[in-house]
Specification:
binds (2R,3R)-2,3,4-trihydroxybutanoic acid, D-Maltodextrin-Binding Protein, domain 2, 17% strand, 11 strands, 336 residues
Length: 336
């Protein structure tokens, strides 16, 4: 009898122990959605982040990645984060600008000249002030990742100079500045989600699109687009987002671990994006694309033609934001 009571007490002590320690080791299962295939640095970075969250939270938070828009487009996934039905996603600053318009400033054409410069602007006070605008929209901005410099492809003709844009029907991201940019160059812009784009190009609903080499390659646009021009008309950053409804449920320790994982994954993601953007131009030529190198002089003329669009959006963004944006670029150039 005595012995039974001893075992009983031990069992209750163990049970109590298990109950009191369980909140700290509670399992959080999170979902991360991306719009691009597994071979694109957006998803490669997402998988690295998921792995790092697992290690840094010692298994308390498990992130499962759903790639290739299986959970919807960037716009749909971002709104799912706000509603708490999805936990992480990585949209372009251009689509995020529909919620916080200041993010659109990154897309002002021909602003950035190198990736290193973009890092300095985005990781410095300018980029961090942008991320600080997200919580009021029920989003947490963890880091800027890279999509890269965007280039135009089409199925009609080689685009070398500004007049060649005339009459080309081009898909753009769902962003007003990009729409006006391509209308301003003389083409007809049709906004749509990236996951609808291959079919639109294949059926010739549109003639053209613009994206970094990594997207052109991952989405196999070379199967439906003959001409590629190195316009480099805008630099595109991605933003690693967490939903605030999800974030608010996490412990301090888990938030800190996730922030550290985001920081580490960012270095890896940018490095991967740069390596692939460097390698994939040759791969696209090998797939049969005809590549036209756009000269600095022609880029200058494109920028000239876009002055009214740049001025219109500078007015919309406001002097303060635009001068701090160009100021941050100038500072990055001087290396300070
Ligand atoms: O979100 O929509 C696009 O063209 C973007 O480059 C891409 O999907 C990243």
């Amino acid at each position: 009898m005595k012995l039974n009571r001893f075992w009983g007490a031990l069992a209750s002590a163990l049970l109590l122990g298990a109950l009191t320690t369980s909140p700290a080791s509670a399992q959080v299962k999170a979902k991360l959605g991306t719009s691009l295939p597994d071979t694109h640095p957006q998803t490669i970075g997402a998988r690295k982040f998921a792995e790092l969250v697992g290690t840094r939270t010692e298994g308390r938070v498990t992130v499962t990645v759903y790639s290739n828009a299986t959970l919807g487009s960037d716009v749909q996934m971002t709104s799912a984060l706000q509603g708490g039905t999805l936990d992480f996603t990585v949209p372009s600053t251009a689509t995020l600008a529909n919620l916080v318009k200041d993010f659109g400033v990154i897309g002002l054409p021909f602003s950035f000249t190198s990736e290193k410069q973009a890092d300095a602007v985005l990781d410095g006070p300018f980029g961090q002030a942008l991320l600080a605008k997200l919580p009021e929209k029920k989003l947490i901005g963890l880091a800027f990742w890279e999509n890269g410099f965007r280039n135009v492809t089409n199925s009609r003709r080689s685009i070398e100079k500004v007049d060649d844009f005339s009459g080309i029907k081009i898909r753009t991201m769902q962003n007003n500045l990009y729409i006006d940019m391509f209308n301003g160059l003389g083409s007809n812009a049709v906004p749509m989600a990236v996951n609808e784009l291959f079919t639109a190009l294949e059926t010739r609903a549109v003639d053209a699109q613009e994206n970094p080499f990594t997207v052109i390659h991952a989405q196999k646009f070379f199967d439906v687009q003959k001409y590629l021009s190195t316009t480099g008309h805008a630099y595109d950053a991605l933003v690693l987002l967490a939903g605030k409804p999800f974030w608010d449920k996490l412990s301090e320790a888990d938030r800190g671990a996730i922030e550290a994982a985001a920081k580490e994954a960012t270095l890896f993601q940018r490095e991967t994006s740069r390596r692939l953007n460097g390698d994939l131009k040759a791969a696209l030529a090998k797939e049969g694309m005809q590549i036209t190198e756009v000269t600095p002089e022609q880029r200058g003329l494109m920028r000239e033609k876009l002055k009214p669009v740049i001025n219109k959006y500078a007015a919309q963004f406001g002097d303060e934001l635009v001068s701090s944006f160009y100021g941050a670029i100038a500072k990055a150039n001087s290396g300070n």
